Amino acid sequence: MKHYDYIIIGFGKGGKTLAADLAAQGKTVAMIEKSNEMYGGTCINIACIPTKLLIHHAEKDSQLKNNKNEYYRNAIEDKNKTIAALREKNYKNLADQETVMVYTAEASFVGTNQIHLEAKEETLDLTADYFIINTGSEPVIPPIDGLKEANHVYTSTELQQVAELPEKLIIVGGGYIGLEFAVMYANFGTEITIIDSSKDFMENDDRDIAEEVLKVVQAKGISVVHGSKATTVSNHESGIEVTLEFDKGKERTETASALLLATGRKPYTEGLELGKASVEVDDNGAIIVDDDLRTSNRHIWALGDVNGGPQFTYISLDDYRIVRDQVLTGGSYSLAKRKNVPYSVFIEPVLSHVGLNEKMAQEQNINYVVATMPAANIPRTKINKQPDGLLKALVDPETKKILGCTLFSAESSEMINIVRVAMEADLPYTFLRDNIFTHPTMSEGLNDLFKMFDGKLA
Q1: DSSP assignment letter at 286
Q2: Percent of the chain having pLDDT more than 90?
Q3: Which positions are annotated as active-site residues?
């Protein structure tokens, strides 16, 4: 039975980065990945990179006018080639390390320091001093009658593999994943209907932001059906038929070429036999960790989506920093020191946020002053012809510190990082009000947005 210093289960962002650092220190590492299609993790194979690449292709409106189906097939082919190259690079980055062995197999614990591997043609048991679980997440499949029997039903992972552009797509789920796919496929020329179980569109966001997003979404021809849930699906001559249920028992049917299930993701721990390793999970299936990301077994850490934290690849990378500090550098970084996690939703324009919005501040009884500004006020929007959107910020009236910021505008995915740095540095709003930005850029809009607080905080 082969023994390693560290066994990492899951070839995701946090795990692969830690594996390289451990190898550089002369540690022996086993990297376990159950699929050769997932070297490098969720981000490069089925999430961030492929979806953003398709979004990039979909924004080339002028090229779609000739033959949208051919253009879409070419976009899928380009996506496949790109991620295949990235996957191969990620594999070699570890496999070429002298002290790292990559195993393509399914892993399950058989004890507190031992795992069993099942590959296509062989089995193997390994032991280690320490384990890292980095298995990510998987789509949540809602309880809809007929799903197993119906054709043309896809998760976000599966739809990206379909080379034929759906003429009409029904999306179950009005969250951020559903919105990204809705806008992307609408730009490719697909007719889109979103089935949103919430009565309020983007219910966790401020109403002014949500209304602005909805206006832009509807301008693309996307239909949003609020307060409804899909109860039954069945095959139909046009592809698939979906029965929707509303309040008071009302029903109606919709037909489409395909159905996308965009109802969230959950930690992936299937088959790991965590109980045999004395690793506890919560009611949602997430591995329970402390602020150092240690599990109930002190020799095992859990990184990324599987520990129930924010489901972003950069959070998996930040989880890596926490574990790296403990096992390699003797640092003290922990979850307790993480704050102000930014995110971006790559609709058109991009929706980005960090910190508190008004809804959160009110729920937490936090005093704030707010400022909003149309994105069209930024000179750059006259150049890039992207005037849609709204910029919004919250400031503490006593400390003058930034509490949060929501940017619904072109290039907001870059701008939000600037705001986050100011918040992390505990700088007052005046830092962004007076910062020198190059011109003409979207970032200089932060000057004007934060200048609006001068009259409100006097």
Answers
A1: P
A2: 95
A3: 439
Q: In this structure, which amino acid lies at residue 175? A: G
Query: What one-letter code names the amino acid at 277?
Result: A
Give phi and psi for 404, each to the nearest 5.
Answer: 180, 165
**Alpha-helix runs per DSSP H in 138-190:** 156-159, 176-188
Write phi, then psi, for 295 (nearest 5 degrees).
-85, -175
**Whole-angstrom Cα distance, residue 138 to residue 268?**
6
Cα gap 18→320, rounded to integer Å: 6
Residue 59: its pLDDT value, please? Answer: 84
Pair 443, 418: CB distance under 8 Å: yes
Query: Would you state the pLDDT for residue 120?
Result: 86
- Inform me whether the pLDDT recorded for 62 exceeds 60: no
Contact 28, 7 (CB under 8 A): no
CA 121 to centroid of chain Cα atoms: 34
The pTM of this model reads 0.95
What confidence tier does 449 reach under pLDDT thresholds 50, 70, 90? very high
Q: What is the largest CA-CA distance in the chain?
A: 73
Q: CA-based angle 309:310:313, to the nearest 5?
A: 110
